[in-house]
Each structure stands twice: as C-alpha cells, then as structure tokens.
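Loading example: each entry is read as four labelled lines plus one structure line.
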Amino acid sequence: MSSSFVILAEPSRRAILRLLASSERSVSDLEQQLRLPQPSVSKHLRILREAGFVQARVDAQRRLYRLRPEPLMEVDAWLAPFRRFWTPHLDALERHLDRVDSKSRRRRKQR
Amino acid sequence: MSSSFVILAEPSRRAILRLLASSERSVSDLEQQLRLPQPSVSKHLRILREAGFVQARVDAQRRLYRLRPEPLMEVDAWLAPFRRFWTPHLDALERHLDRVDSKSRRRRKQR
DNA sequence: CAGGTATATACTAATCTGGGTATATATAAG
DNA sequence: CTTATATATACCCAGATTAGTATATACCTG
C-alpha cells in the first residue's frame, strides 16, 4: 500500500482524477480523452482503485468509475501545517474554524 | 524537472519538509532527527532545492535550510477542483473538520 | 452458440530511484 | 599548514515502475 503521494506522482493518474472530478466516466471514455492505450488506463485505474481514489460500478460491459475523496482529503490535511506560509492571519483562521466546528458540534447530538 | 508530486512521493522528503515547517535547520540537525545517513539527507535536500521546495544559506561550515512555499502552494491549488467533494455543504464540512481538527487539536495541546 | 465490444491481466524490456559506500570540497580551529 | 567538522558528490547496485504488446475475461446481441 503506497502512500497517496506516490499514487499522485504519476501524471496520467492525476489526469484521470481531474476528469473524474467533473463526472463519472467509463474506461473507454478516459482512454479517448487522454489518448492513452486502454491497458494503461486500466492499469492506472486499478492502482487508483486499490488506493481508494476511485470506485467502479458495473454498467453492462462497461465499468463506470467515480471519484472517492478520502485519499485527497488526507493530502489536503498533510498540507495544513504549511498553509501558514501563504495564508495570512492563520490564528484568525484557526479561531474561525474552531467557532464553526464548535457550533456544528453543539447543533448535533453529542457523540 | 519533475513535478512537485514526484518530489513529495518520497517519505524522507516529506519528513524533511515537515521539520522545516517549524524552523530552519542544518543538515546534521535533519540527519539526527530523521536518523538517515548524511549522504541521503544531502541528496534529498538537493532534489528539494532544485525543485524549489527549500533554500539554503551558509553559516560557517553549516548550511541552514529553510522552506520555500511556492511548490506546496501549487499542490494546494491542484487540490482546489476536488474540494467540493468534501466541502459542498455543512455535513461534509463537519466530517472534514472532525478528522483534521482532532489532529491539530492534539498538536496544539502539546505546546 | 457466435461474434463483437469493453475491460482486465500477464509478460517483458527499458528506465528510474534510493540506499550504501567512498570520496571530494569547504570552512574552522589549533 | 594540519587536522577536524560539515556538507556535497560520484558511483554502483537492487528493486520498483511504466510503456508496450499480447491475451484473457466478461457481457451483450443476434
């Protein structure tokens, strides 16, 4: 199980994810959009699937792939400690997120 | 010139960046923190430097490395089209904050 | 069942990468 | 100038990865 960053290191895989960001797509659809040989697309999709980036559902002979956000969320979270380098007033932002979070906590039932 | 994602695919390099997120550090400092052989550290630093992730300044025999945010900002920007998957409405926002925030809370308490 | 379409997998060769070791360079200190 | 310290580079090797090609599997249609 490679890290999400290893998965994203491959340009074709990032391209696949970008396409899936807008909508669910079949293998042949991706193949045409990216002008990649079909086995390449299938191999990248397998890697993306095993890493949890995408999910397939069966539609007759086709497999329709759609995005799963979890691994990208982890990448997003990894970036968090670095955002203070390009986001002004991090303290204010943190206070803001804490407020939003505590509000939603209050609104929900206790965990 | 490899993409920023290729640079970040290497765990030791991500560890170096995390350490540099808190402060400037010398090579031997990184070497001890990460328990890596010195040539490994220097090699990774070279790759990080050439990709613009870090910058060195000379201090006697030592080289002090510090973070440069630009490449990480690009990664952050690449994630933008995907954020709607975990921040479209409040419920998803809550789930995201629950995961990310519990980590940062722990980190904050330790100080 | 036969033929066609869609997708997955197996296999190979070429390339790339990181670890390990040895060595080179730079600066300081005596 | 000599030695010590800090860092960088050169070189080789073993493992991993990708593209390319061929082939297998799954499902539909007639």
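Residues 107-111 of chain A have pLDDT under 50 and may be disordered.
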